[in-house]
Write a structure and sequence with these properties.
It is a single chain. This protein is mostly helical. Helices cover 70% and strands 0% of the residues. It contains 5 helices and no strands.
Length: 103
Amino acid sequence: MDVIYLDRLFGLNLLLDYCLMLASARVCGVVLHRARYLLAALTGALYAVVMVLPGCGWLGSGAMKLALGAAMALIAFGGEWSVGFLTKHNPGLVLDDWLTVSK
């Protein structure tokens, strides 16, 4: 039987998730919202702890991991990532250009 220290699992996941959110934001050039990154990291760390509890093995499925990753991204970036990424790498591109239909 393996022993997992939940406090260390939580702390390590919190630290790594926060650093990944912060690094992603800096690379994409979006405005930093550290409280939102912390909230997303807390969500991921809680998920990691709950996933190893007895009877919660179903949370380790690929679909749940994908859903949680998407939820963390929405918490952290709230839709601003796509706009910031596109405008940073394509300065002439604005969201309205996507919605207009050329005649």
